[in-house]
Design goal:
alpha/beta, TIM Barrel
Amino acid sequence: MKPAPKIGGLVPFSSCDYPGELACVVFLAGCPWRCGYCHNPHLQAREQHDAAPQWDEILIWLKTRRGLLDAVVFSGGEPLIEPQLPEMMHAVKALGFKIGLHSGGSYPKRLQECLPYLDWVGFDIKSDFMLYEKVTAVTGSGAVASASLKLLLAGKVALECRSTIHPSLHSEDELIHLAQILSKAGVQRYVLQSFRPAGCIEPALINSAQLHFPQPATLAAIEQQFASFEFVPTLVA
């Protein structure tokens, strides 16, 4: 008998986690990376959270949400860490929901297994793939992220790439170079989102955040690389 999926939490209603759709968000527990700016560090450990429902309970609840919700989004942590994720997506698809995924692409093989079920993906790009370890603190993380992005682009899944940025982790030139890499790869929509101190457990990052990063000229250079670009600033006290 397979162990139950490890659930970190459930948001029963969201209008912002799947563009244009009303969704619930299932948070899966566990992440192999240790990004300093992570705003969900409580989901890094691979363990079922006591306050979270079991997956079987979520499936029963989802049957009552048909006609009320459009989609189910799997997030984390890193949802691809869950071995049963393809089976979970299959069960959700059978109920008639669209499926979204928030992922950093840590497990390309499992992502490939999930591709037939996916309708939309929010893909987290940490930095230039050659510089990933600076953000994730894990050797080889850039290679698997790059492989996952190639799978998504080849699979023609509706895709939004986004990067959380911080002046201690990304220079202005690195951001422009990253945009060029993604544009050349075929990314159409890209979102830059400023570091958010909420949830961060790294005082050095909190104390070194800047209000005016990146500069307008950098944003302009990035914007021209994509059919759709958005910058989401965060005010830092």
